[in-house]
Amino acid sequence: MSGPADPWAGWPGAALARGLAETWPGLQLEVVQTSPSTNQALASQAQAAWRDGQTEVPPCLLVARRQTAGRGRLGRQWVSGLDDSLTFSLRWQPRRADWSGLSLAVGLAVAEALDPEGGQLGLKWPNDLWRVDGPGQGRKLGGILIEGLGTGARRTAVLGIGLNLRPPQVDWPVASVSEWRADLASPPDVLDALLPGLVRTLQAFDAGGWSAMSSRYAARDLLRGHPVITTHPDCPQGIADGIGDDGCLWVRDGARRVAIVGGEVSVRPVPGRSEGARC
């Protein structure tokens, strides 16, 4: 008796392959059964190419059906079972020198692709996607990890994205794509829905930066208006007050408005004071 059909057989389809070839010439696509970390795999490929004397490395999208040692922000682990999650990374050499807001742009692209009408997916600064359960409330659907490597002409971004497709077996509330997108029945279906918009967003970011997208992010900002606590020494808590044109999180503490920069804080709703999403 034959086993279940491989959902990745024949991926990408002709229409997607043709569209990507037109919008992003040279983009390589690869699917592997298992990878410790797709971000690390793409970084290692680039570093090997540089040791061989290459300056430019081709853009590459690497999908792992199972990821065993994925990393989230601040070194947190992301482990996925076979096809339970969509875990992939994209290696890219932007022309733009200023990458401020890149993780926000990627999150926005994913949210708009999976929830084009709005109301289902919100964004939690700096790199999380949440299923919206009510005003300021939700459960984490996925996350984004942006890593940079190389300098000068070799400067390269590796964009890692992980999304729950089916409810994971964990002891805390999380969301999955299957809750509201029954039409996206397999990981390739979800990736097909994501890729065109993600490519367009990255190209727009490369051309114009983050500020041109900030108003769209504001419509999905889960933190704005809610009390938060931070690890910033000058602003341990306050009210989230939107995202700056450089991608910072503004936090208002009385009369002061403090810019929080990604990578230096962990933002949480204040226990007992907020209806905001709990992390």
What's a quick, concise take on this entry?
The chain is an alpha+beta fold and about 280 residues long. It has helices spanning about 15-25, 40-50, 100-115, 185-210, 215-220; strands at about 30-35, 60-70, 75-80, 85-90, 120-125, 130-135, 135-150, 155-165, 225-230, 235-245, 250-255, 255-260, 270. The protein is built from 5 helices and 13 strands.
How would you portray this structure in words?
With 279 residues, the protein is of the alpha+beta class. The chain folds into two domains: 14-218, BirA Bifunctional Protein, domain 2 (2-Layer Sandwich); 227-269. The protein has helices at residues 14-23, 38-51, 102-114, 187-208, 214-218; strands spanning 28-35, 60-71, 77-80, 85-92, 121-124, 128-134, 137-149, 156-164, 227-229, 237-243, 249-253, 256-260, 268-269. Strands 1, 2, 3, 4, 5, 6, 7 and 8 form an eight-stranded mixed β-sheet that branches. A five-stranded antiparallel β-sheet has the order 12-11-10-9-13. Helix 1 (14-23) runs parallel beside helix 4 and helix 3 (102-114) packs across helix 4. The model is unreliable at 273-279 (pLDDT under 50).
How many strand elements? 13
Q: What fold name stands as the CATH topology of the largest domain?
A: BirA Bifunctional Protein, domain 2
How far the N terminus sits from the C terminus, by CA atoms, comes to 44 Å
Taking all Cα atoms into account, the compactness measure Rg is 19 Å
Global morphology: globular
Q: Can you identify the CATH class of the largest domain?
A: Alpha Beta
| H/E topology pattern | HEHEEEHEEEEHHEEEEE
The averaged pLDDT comes out at 88
The CATH homologous superfamily of the largest domain is called Bira Bifunctional Protein, Domain 2
The helix fraction, in percent, is 10-25%
Query: Strand-residue fraction?
Result: 25-35%
Characterize the largest beta sheet: strand count, sense, and whether it forms a barrel: 8 strands, mixed
The number of distinct structural domains comes to: 2
Number of H- or I-type helical stretches: 5
Domain BPL/LPL catalytic: 26-206
InterPro entries: aa-tRNA-synth_II/BPL/LPL, Biotin_CoA_COase_ligase, BPL_LPL_catalytic
GO cellular component, one term: cytoplasm
GO molecular function, one term: biotin--[biotin carboxyl-carrier protein] ligase activity
